[in-house]
Structure formats: structure tokens, C-alpha cells
Design brief:
By secondary structure, the protein is α/β, with parallel strands linked by helices. It has 8 helices and 7 strands. The chain has one domain: Rossmann fold (3-Layer(aba) Sandwich), CATH 3.40.50. The structure holds S-adenosyl-L-homocysteine, 3,4-dihydroxybenzoic acid (DHB) and magnesium ion. One of its GO terms (biological process) is methylation.
């Protein structure tokens, strides 16, 4: 098994399960031209996010980590016309690129890109008592995952689905001796999942065009 085979398989799966999509292609091209790193979700993971949000019947979606808005577009497509997606991004440059991509996708009416440190923004949401979210995609800096989870839980309700990206990191997350702050952050995140009786969770490893990584899915109960 090697990475070339994973990529070939991913390409085959995407070709058989997705129609060509000029809007998503344009979003990736514009992101790359603007110098953004290509750390967006893979197309098949993007579609999985859309399908999960759609299965959930999500009307309010929260995303942490916008980058160029690629995953944002997938998620926003699951929303009804009067739905809302708030996506949080630390860097103004990323947010600018994302806003243009989202507008080109015809989703500016449902998506708001909010610039700033996600912790500060989430603390503001909690203070303001905004309505809870139905679906959350956690994909900002990995060392922040424990704090993000604590705050997101205060913005959740029974039935809220929380998906967290990049929780495998080429298997580094299983290394108890790791000193990588991202790995330590993800391990602490899993500790919080494990100890919280309000959360039912699973996690999956993936291989493909984004290497060896994966995601967790949690459902919030009473
Ligand atoms: N969800 C995107 C990829 C996000 S990459 C996609 O799949 O298409 C992670 C993003 O999180 C980067 O744009 C980075 O600038 C942003 N980020 C990092 N630290 C952050 C923080 N503290 N608050 C908000 N965003 C942050
Ligand atoms: C990184 C971030 C991501 O969200 C991702 O999907 C892959 C890599 C990173 O920061 O390296
Ligand atoms: Mg990611």
C-alpha cells in the first residue's frame, strides 16, 4: 500500500460519486492563487460533511477555521434558504478569499465569515446568548480543540452534531509521549469526549489525497 494508490482510489471515488463542480473548483483555484495552503478537506469528506448536516436537518451551522471557504461551501449547501452558517477565521486574508468564494457560490445570504480568534468569538456568542447550533465543524488550530469543545458545548443542545477534523495526524495522536502541541491538543480533546456523559462519539481514520488523517463525530444528548 502506498500514498499513490490512496490518491488514485480517492480520485476514482470522487469521479464516481460527485458531479463536476465549477464553483468548488474555482474556490480551490482562487485559494491557491491567493497563496492559501491546500489544507481544505478532500472533496469526498466535504460531501460527507454536507450529507451529515443534511441528515441532521441542520438550520444553524458553526464552523471553526474557514481558510478559503471550501468546507464552508459544502456545509452551507445543506442549509435551507433561511438557514445560517457562521464560520470563524483568525486571518483577515483567509476571510477575504473565503468571502469571495462564498459569494461566487451564491451562498453569501446564508454564510457569515467572522474574523478573530475563535475563542474570543465563541466567548462573545456565549455572553450574547445566541441560539444553539445544530451542527458544528471544528477545524481551526488543533491545539485549541479542548477549549473550542468546552465553548461549543455551551452553544449546543440535545441532538447537536460535532465533527472534528484532523484527529489522527498520521497516527501521531496515538503517541502518548508526543510533545507536539497539536497532538497534545487533540489528545486532550479526546479526553474531554471520553469523560463527558453528554457526548456519544466515534472517530474514523482516513487515507487518500490528504494523507493519513481522520475525524471524530459526536452527538450531544441531554
Ligand atoms: N475548514 C477549512 C480548512 C481550515 S484550515 C476547509 O476544510 O476548507 C484552518 C484554518 O483555521 C486556517 O485558515 C487558520 O487561519 C484558522 N485558524 C487558526 N487558528 C485560529 C483561531 N485561533 N481562530 C480562528 N481561526 C483559526
Ligand atoms: C492542517 C490543518 C487542517 O485543517 C487540515 O485539514 C490539514 C492540515 C494543518 O494545520 O497542518
Ligand atoms: Mg482540517
Amino acid at each position: 500500500m502506498n500514498e499513490q494508490q490512496w490518491i488514485a482510489m480517492d480520485e476514482y471515488l470522487c469521479e464516481r460519486t460527485q458531479a463536476p463542480d465549477a464553483v468548488l473548483d474555482a474556490a480551490l483555484r482562487a485559494s491557491s492563487e491567493a497563496g492559501l495552503p491546500s489544507i481544505n478537506v478532500a472533496p469526498n469528506q466535504g460531501k460527507l460533511l454536507q450529507m451529515l448536516a443534511s441528515l441532521r436537518g441542520a438550520r444553524r451551522i458553526l464552523e471553526l477555521g474557514t481558510l478559503g471557504g471550501y468546507s464552508t461551501i459544502w456545509l452551507a449547501r445543506a442549509l435551507p434558504a433561511d438557514g445560517t452558517l457562521l464560520t470563524l477565521e483568525a486571518l483577515e486574508h483567509h476571510a477575504d478569499v473565503a468571502r469571495r468564494n462564498i459569494a461566487r457560490a451564491g451562498l453569501a445570504g446564508v454564510v457569515s465569515v467572522i474574523v478573530g480568534d475563535a475563542v474570543q468569538t465563541l466567548e462573545g456568542f456565549v455572553r450574547d446568548g445566541i441560539p444553539p447550533f445544530d451542527f458544528v465543524f471544528l477545524d481551526a488550530d488543533k491545539k485549541g480543540y479542548p477549549e473550542y469543545l468546552r465553548l461549543v458545548l455551551r452553544l449546543s443542545r440535545p441532538g447537536t452534531v460535532i465533527v472534528a477534523d484532523n484527529v489522527i495526524r498520521r497516527g501521531q495522536v496515538a503517541d502518548t509521549a508526543s510533545v507536539d502541541p497539536d497532538v497534545i491538543g487533540v489528545r486532550k480533546f479526546f479526553d474531554l469526549l471520553a469523560e463527558n456523559p453528554r457526548l456519544s462519539s466515534t472517530a474514523m481514520q482516513t487515507v487518500g489525497s490528504k494523507g493519513w488523517d481522520g475525524f471524530s463525530i459526536s452527538i450531544v444528548s441531554e
